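Here we describe the complex-level prediction in full. Unlike the single-chain runs in Section 2.1, the two entities below were treated as one system.
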Amino acid sequence: MNQFVIRRLITTIPVLFGILVLTFVLLRAIPGDPCRAIVAERATEEVCDQFIESSGLNKSIPEQFLDYLNQVARGDLGTSFRHNRPVVDLFFERLPTTIELGIVASVFAVVVGTPLGIIAARRRATLVDFGSMSVAAVGVSTPVFLLGLLLAYCFGVLLSDTPFALPPSGRLTPGAFYEPFYVAWGLIPPKGEAFGFLVFLSRFHILNAVLTVNPDLMTDAIRHLILPAVTAGTIPLAIISRIMRSSLLDVLSQDYILTARSKGLSEFTVVVGHGVRNAMLPVTTVIGLSFGSLLSGAILTETVFGLPGVGQLVVEGIFARDYPVVQGSIMLLAFSFVFVNFVVDVSYAYLDPRVKLQ
Amino acid sequence: MSKKRLITIYLVPIIIVLAALACSSDNEATQVPVDDAPFEGMSASAANCDYEGEIKSIEALDELTVKFTLCFPDPAFVQKVTSPAIGILPTGYLEETEGADEIITKPVGTGPYKFERWDPGNEIVFKRHDDYWGDKAKEETLVFRWNSEASQRLNELRAGSIDGMDNVSPADFGTVESESDLALYVRPSINVAYVGMSAAFKPFDDPKVRRAVAFAIDRQRLVDNFYPPGSIIATQFLPPSLFGYTPNLEFFRYDRVQAEKLLDNAGVLRGDDGIRFTTTMSYRDVVRSYLPQPGIVAQDIQAQLKEVGIDVKLQVMESGAYLDAVFAGDQLPMHLLGGFVDYPDGSNLLSFLFSGTSLPVFGAKFKEISDAVDETNRRADPDDRLRFFREANIAIRDLAPVVPFAHGGSAAAYKASIEGAHVSPMAVFDQFAVMEDPDDDNIIWMQNAEPVGLYCALNTDGESLRACSQVHEGLLAFSVGGTEVVPALAHAFTVNEDSTEWTFELRPGVRFHDGSLLDANDVVLSYLVQWDVEHPFHPGPGRVPTFSAFFGRLLNAPAP
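The structure predicted for the assembly as a whole is:
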């Protein structure tokens, strides 16, 4: 097992390096002048020249790459051209929202998608199967921005005077302020990195609500996440339900299921205890990959719902040609994606011992 | 241990400590309160005016008087000093932050609202500045939020979770107007959309061809079909609300016959296929108030020019690359673009494209235009300036390097119940302090994007500048919802005859958000950190775009 983990860890290094090279090259291949995008559309040539020089963009691409590599090796992802602030600060300010969205969307996708797949498999070729798989097909093919806008209009505007009303956008109610847990716990004034970590944790609003026992914050934070999570989770939900269905159908046709049935076990025990358990392997992979892609692919959801996540930061960075922000954020996102996949692989190996041998 | 020794052990340290305390309190006592200290005015000056910048010197004459000496007359100086990009900051705060980090995220100014907190990506909260020198903000709290989707901003407004939103989509004007609990505020157009032609490409080197294009474009049709209410047809480059507009200037009316005649005269004849010549018109798919639907407008112009035998291929380009190509002047035969102003003076719109030092955006320099534009920048007398504006406007019409076709309107929407709601023609000067929400004690505003920073010397985006203008104030300001220059931190100013010496009298008793009192040194230092590249608090080369745009080269800037 240890060897397997080490081997997997080593394979992540070229992946991350490849992403670093690719991001660096692709960003510079995009047409557009960072000065016009960041300083001003009507900036004079002199101002632009000064900006380009001070940003190091006057150097050749290989020189810029070596500089960047040197920076990254020292754990410095650079300073945003646009915000004049360290990329790491900007990224970790936004990461909690993206993780919260990813978790809630994943929970939604798994909790709804898995039973949907099981029901479809159990009622194969019936109206229920057809209906649930149609819902899955629609879910996969509906553009995120369209679904998001429709949900926001429906629950934000049409149902605004009903108990079903939900906020159309934003992370919390405008102007609402909730005490961070470290203040509530009297941990002020912590300094340095420890303080930064506490601030980072406090930006997980649901966690902060739990730690400060604040039901108002909990309600507010969850209400603002429902529509984005449903929007972001619909595609993974559809994929999970379809994989669950086909995997379970495959398992249910195995001989050991027949043996279980012939032993007189209840249908529930046969399906859930023997069938679902064995059908979960491919579904686990999909769940892991979905969470990884939710982390990195929440761009549209965050843009539509105005959520202060990493996706929004990257989009703004791309439009502004803010190379350090895009490069740094993608590196960190890639790292988290690789990490999640690593965890999935390891858990896969744990669930299925044959994987280790391969 | 003897008594004597015990006394020595305990008493000596006590005496030393007491003596130290006494000395330290003595030191504090000898520190004269700042208010009573004789005022030492700061000043900064350029050795001469050869550095190609506008400012010669800035001096604090006394505690409440600041004098600017300019290298040449600048009639728009009073408008430039309104900008939130050149807001006045307290000296102590500048020294404490050294012009970095907190200055961007935790601003301190004199405005009616003071910064409370910034939840990155989510919102910025401001609180009423209770020591404000003028009318205090009506509401205790001001919240800035953002969403890039116009439909989502409208959803928020209709859901009642915000009080006002910027940039209503033109398609939603009707929706907002039809709902009784919402109100639409159309922003006057201080911008221009135009088709530019480069004389570096044949046949656009012939003014007759350029005039023919002007005759061939039905500007009324473009405005009627593709612009929101509040937009107007452009009859010259400058919009009517801008100083420098020339009334009753006859522009080319849509006349296909005249266009064809001019093209024939220029020797650009129709071929067998009915085409006179083929060219490319480039544009970027970026929505601006002057060009709310770039693609559709480009297609319609393409169709209109086809009718007179000009075959136009359309080319969509990435914004940055497009601007670079446009400013190069010799890369694009035709382009679709526009511009808006930083301050409401015609020289701001004209100088960028047509002054003697402008880039040859239209493939050549047009001396008749640039001479007149340069005069509008040098003259102090308003009547004199208007005369040269007229010359410039006529020369632009006759030489036709551009065909201005629209001054686009835009709109904000508020809950109908918000009292004092307004839109400023200069969008960044919307003043939320005069707005009152009878339903609660806050104003919640939603705009397109998050401010990049709150030290707006560094920023040019409207979203940042609007937020900055709630916190920072300039020496002067614009009237609420208007473009009239009114007193702000300076309650009066005088200017010499040739507009090169401007002396501002500061308002006494103005307090910054950190409690310190405004004086002339705050003004000098706030300007100096932007003006002097070698000042330790200067943000860095190329980082003060507004100051550079307003006042030319910076002091001690490296040679280009």
